[in-house]
Amino acid sequence: MERKRHSLTGEVVSTKMDKTIVVKVVRRIQHKVYKKIINSSRKYMVHVASVVPKEGDIVRITSIRPMSKRKRWQVSEIIRESVKIG
Description:
It is built from no helices and five strands. By secondary structure, it is mainly beta. A five-stranded mixed beta barrel has the order 1-2-3-5-4.
């Protein structure tokens, strides 16, 4: 039986580890009482197999089997590469 894979989109924050990057995923949620839109973010440890993103890139990550204590995601594609100014 095939398990449905979840996917998220976020920005690469850190590439300092070997075969692992940190991706920040921002969600926009509405406050229950005040109805104001709030940005809520979370960082994910993501495994890098074939695609090698740089800091600032926007990537899509998909869920995989647990690879370590905190690593349960893998980079599936680079959506947009970062633009360096200057």
